[in-house]
Amino acid sequence: MLTDLGPKPGTSSVDYEVEEVEKPLHPKNQTLLAYWSGKTDADGFVCRRDIDPVDLKKVLGGLFIVEPVDNAADLLYRLVGSQNERRLGMRCMGRRFTECYAPGMAADQIAFHKRVFASGKPAFLRGRLLGLDLEYVNFEASYLPLRTADGGWQMMGGMYDLAEPA
Q1: Three-state SS for 126?
Q2: Strand-strand pairing, 74-80 and 123-130
Q3: Which terminus of the chain is more exposed, N or C, with fewer CB under 10 A?
């Protein structure tokens, strides 16, 4: 599946061109997947309370945690690593996808997250960011669903430049 949502004229929103892939290539996404897999409970879920950021020091710069808001009509960034905010050129933490991204990308990402939540399985995207002079960045992102204590969902993931060292 290739999604091409080019930047909208006259906006400073971030957009992307991505393809869903079966497994991560970037070592930091492989680290996240291994960590997440090691936390899976008997029901096949990973609980948010079992995730300890201290365990993830090597990958924190690209880490993100999001959760659905407004009956899953949007997603809110609870945590965004400093490398990602620097790469995107904006503060994302505490903001909604519809505030951070072009409308097509926001809608696509919200639908993608809903699908990953429904499956309870990890997913991975590879592609490039568009807008804000980011066209040169080839990135890979991981999406790892987490169950919250109240039975809701959060998504932990990582976004890393494929050219950056492990």
Answers
A1: strand
A2: unpaired
A3: N
